[in-house]
Amino acid sequence: QQQVKQSPQSLIVQKGGISIINCAYENTAFDYFPWYQQFPGKGPALLIAIRPDVSEKKEGRFTISFNKSAKQFSLHIMDSQPGDSATYFCAAHYNNAGNMLTFGGGTRLMVKP
Amino acid sequence: EAQVTQNPRYLITVTGKKLTVTCSQNMNHEYMSWYRQDPGLGLRQIYYSMNVEVTDKGDVPEGYKVSRKEKRNFPLILESPSPNQTSLYFCASSNDGSNQPQHFGDGTRLSIL
């Protein structure tokens, strides 16, 4: 049973559009929420992360919105580019088990030129 | 260059034939872990290690073994592989702590026939 649910599974966006990926969690013990970006043939790489005491974090074209009461968080990619085409994973960190990350199921994003 | 190196990158083998996937990191990280990635399920943690000689089970440890005799190495051992262990495997390392990014290797694709 996945503790972090991610949607959609796939997403097609036109160049310049906004890509939005959503995640929901149940465990209130999670204390850190990173997003990872994965290109074919490569391992996931940290993109941006947020702690639950912050409602929004922005780094360039990437923004995380965090709603603690709803136990939801989302990734927004503004001005999406073909180079953003990749698989994105949300994750949640559970401090009681070392540095364990629980991942969502992933979203395959395709940005059309 | 800071990196996590996995070998082999690809392996096709048969049921019951013991195999080892090696993982090495050059960042002096305390924490290392193994994940498997399956479509729609994201990455699920198999085992993790918080330091030398300290290992513990993740979410899906059945059928796997690990060891941590040196800080830089964390091999994954399949004593008697079965077809349901066909998957894409990732090794990761990080400094200890909840907000420390995990650095992933480029993956090992295992096919068990």
Question: Could you characterize what this model shows?
Answer:
The complex is a heterodimer of chains A (113) and B (113). With 113 residues, chain A is an all-beta fold. Chain A has no helices and 11 strands. In chain A, strands 2, 4, 5, 9, 10 and 11 form a 6-stranded mixed β-sheet that branches. By secondary structure, chain B is mostly beta strands. The N and C termini of chain B lie far apart (36 Å). Helices cover 0% and strands 50% of the residues of chain B. Chain B is globular, with a radius of gyration of 13 Å. In chain B, strands 2, 4, 5, 6, 9, 10 and 11 form a 7-stranded mixed β-sheet that branches. A 4-stranded antiparallel β-sheet of chain B has the order 1-3-8-7, with no helix packed on it. The mean pLDDT of chain B is 93. Chains A and B meet through strand 4, strand 5 and strand 10 of A and strand 4, strand 5 and strand 9 of B.
Give a brief description.
The complex is a heterodimer of chains A (113) and B (113). Chain A is mainly beta.
The SSE string of chain B, one letter per element, is EEEEEEEEEEE
Structural class of chain B: mainly beta
The count of strands of chain A amounts to 11
Largest interface: A-B, 29 and 29 residues
Q: Quaternary arrangement of the chains shown?
A: heterodimer
Strand share of the residues of chain A?
A: over 45%
Keywords:
heterodimer; A: 113 residues; mainly beta; six-stranded mixed sheet; five-stranded antiparallel sheet; 0% helix
Strand and helix layout:
The complex is a heterodimer of chains A (113) and B (113).
Chain A: E1 4-7, E2 10-14, E3 19-25, E4 30-38, E5 45-50, E6 56-59, E7 62-67, E8 72-77, E9 86-94, E10 100-103, E11 107-112
Parallel strand pairs in A: 2-11
Antiparallel strand pairs in A: 1-3, 3-8, 4-5, 4-9, 6-7, 7-8, 9-10, 9-11
Chain B: E1 4-7, E2 10-13, E3 19-25, E4 31-38, E5 42-51, E6 54-57, E7 65-66, E8 76-78, E9 87-94, E10 103-104, E11 108-112
Parallel strand pairs in B: 2-11
Antiparallel strand pairs in B: 1-3, 3-8, 4-5, 4-9, 5-6, 7-8, 9-10, 9-11
